[in-house]
Design goal:
The chain is α+β, with helices and mostly antiparallel strands and 342 residues long. The protein is 43% helix and 18% strand. The strands form 2 sheets. A 7-stranded mixed β-sheet has the order 1-4-5-9-8-7-6, sandwiched between helices. A two-stranded antiparallel sheet has the order 2-3. A hairpin with a 2-residue loop joins β6 and β7. α5 crosses α10. The model has no long low-confidence stretch (mean pLDDT 92). The structure holds phenylalanine (PHE).
Length: 342
């Protein structure tokens, strides 16, 4: 009887351990655990017949059955670990991410083309040894006109060109008043550059009421027109990133004497003549000149000892020519299809 039971238990162990190792899901495994080792499970059923045995035999078979139970529990546990591992691997495989795929195309911001040219200009002048200067956008008549030798009846003061504030202030019509602020505060040698916003009461295809200029001023002993030409030439070469010819046409500004208008080789036709340069091969790019002694007088700089040059250029114009932008209004519309191109 006892012998038979041992055999039965051994057979049960063999069959159930195979079944456990063949189980393929955690749910199946749980079912088997109930089926083999549960309260109403197969092993319990076998042990129910134990009552018919002698106490010694019962003890022996009981111990054997417990060993079997422990063995099977161990097999259950390791199978459970295997199945859990397999489950994790299956999940990893099914949710595998292809890290080489392109990311979702997030819109990336970029600097406005005008600001790119603004920053580039500042960098160029810094590297040439100029300091960056600033002045107020709301000026007084004195700084915007008077100290720059623009007399009271000068057409530039016309209500049609200049915005006045209710308090009698002037929205600066150019960056030249920064020259006055700097020369009031610093004694020569002075090398400054002032980029900034200016305002003119003007609005059409090629004019906006607000635009940007960059002003340069260099004052020292012995400064002459050759220095002006060299700095202008170098600035244009660096900002347009190509070799350019320049030409200085005599002109007039109340605050410079002599004054000139600078033309540079047309960047669209390389000087051959095209629609943009009106077949001349040249593009007008800035105003400049030697600081007028009348200006020095306002800031107490002795024009017998010192001389200087100044120039002012429109940043929108430089940007349009650099990138081939043909409509000024594009700068202010902030259409991302336009801005994305830079
Ligand atoms: N301020 C002048 C303008 O706005 C430009 C200029 C600056 C000319 C400096 C000469 C010297 O047109």
């Amino acid at each position: 009887m006892a012998h038979e039971l041992i055999e039965k238990i051994t057979e049960f162990e063999n069959l159930s351990s195979k079944a456990i190792q063949n189980s393929s899901t955690l749910a199946d495994l749980q079912d088997l655990r109930v089926k083999f080792l549960g309260k109403k499970g197969e092993l319990t059923q076998i042990l129910k017949t134990l009552g018919k045995l002698s106490p010694d035999e019962r003890k022996e078979i009981g111990a054997f059955a417990n060993q079997t139970k422990d063995k099977l529990s161990g097999i259950f546990d390791s199978q459970e670990i295997e199945l859990k591992k397999a489950e994790v691997n299956r999940l990893i495989a099914s949710q595998k991410q292809d890290v080489t795929l392109n990311a979702y195309p997030y819109a990336q911001g970029s600097k406005h083309p005008l600001i790119q040219v603004y920053d580039l200009s500042v960098k160029i002048f810094r590297e040439l040894g100029f300091d960056i200067a600033e002045g107020p956008e709301i000026e007084t008549d004195y700084y915007n006109f008077e100290a720059l030798n623009i007399p009271a009846n000068h057409p530039a003061r016309d209500m049609q060109d200049t915005f006045y504030t209710a308090e009698g202030g002037v929205l600066r019509t150019h960056t030249s008043p920064v020259q006055i602020h700097v020369m009031e505060e610093q004694k020569p040698p002075i090398a400054m550059v002032a980029p900034g916003v200016v305002y003119r009461c003007d609005s059409d295809q090629t004019h906006t009421p607000m635009f940007h200029q960059i002003e340069a001023l260099l004052v020292d002993k012995g400064i002459h027109f050759g220095h002006l030409k060299a700095v202008v030439q170098e600035f244009l070469r660096l900002v347009f990133e190509r070799d350019l010819q320049t030409r200085f046409r005599p002109s007039f500004f109340p605050f410079t004497e002599p004054s000139a208008e600078v033309d540079m080789t047309c960047v669209f036709c390389n000087g051959d003549g095209c629609r943009v340069c009106k077949k001349t091969g040249w593009l007008e790019i800035m105003g400049c000149g030697m600081v007028d002694p009348a200006v020095f007088k306002h800031v107490n700089i002795d024009s017998e000892v010192y001389s200087g040059f100044a120039f002012g250029a429109g940043l929108e114009r430089i940007t349009m020519l650099k990138y081939g932008i043909n409509d000024l209004r594009l700068f202010f519309e902030n259409d991302v299809r336009f801005l994305n191109q830079f």
